[in-house]
């Protein structure tokens, strides 16, 4: 077999692996699975799909090693495969945002104008965490928090934030985070906190990005 034929065979394999990612629903499902293992019913709800449709997409991802499954009674749970899938999703996001200005506009629109929820950089957040001068607020659902969260984070889901404000210190800056750069939960949290007179900022990374960068994650 010639060198060109060898290269063609390799790149054909790569093309086959990339093909399942050419679907918005599958990318959304992967982003939710990256937050922690979930049953197909929950994934269908989060992605706004029927269970049957979600199952079809998940089977495509499973055949190519993007997800793995386990069965518990009648329920099938999905988790990410062993490959560096989060890193692949991050690279895809970065490439898309670099090449397509329209995606940047959509991100700003989706997040309800980020200038109202000033972001903090990873470097500054690490420094503030080391100084113990910030309260880290995870506004994801409790089951996602339990499967992995940033060290020292407090979990108050966005839906419970207003009635649990007393659990947050008034004298310390609050940094809210959720599922990553395209998640609006932390934006809404920051806006709500500021309306109550609290000092709040947003961290636009989630647990998958934090782990991919080599930082520790706690479980509870």
Q: What does the radius of gyration come to?
A: 19 Å
Structural class: alpha/beta
Our measurement of the CA-to-CA distance between the termini, rounded to an integer number of angstroms, reads: 54 Å
Percent of residues in helices:
40-55%
By CATH, the superfamily of the largest domain comes out as: Rhodanese-like domain
- Lateral strand order in the biggest sheet: 5-4-6-7
Number of strands: 7
H/E series, N to C? HHEHHEEHHHEHEEHEH
CATH architecture type of the largest domain: 3-Layer(aba) Sandwich
The total domain count is: 2
Given the C-alpha coordinates, what overall shape results? globular
What is the level 1 CATH name of the largest domain?
Alpha Beta
Given the structure, what is the number of helices?
A: 10
Q: Strand portion, in percent?
A: 5-15%
Low confidence ranges: none
CATH topology group of the largest domain: Oxidized Rhodanese, domain 1
What kind of sheet is the major sheet?
4 strands, parallel
Compute the average pLDDT: 90
A few lines on this structure:
One of its GO terms (molecular function) is DNA-binding transcription factor activity. This protein has 220 residues and is an alpha/beta fold. It is built from ten helices and seven strands.
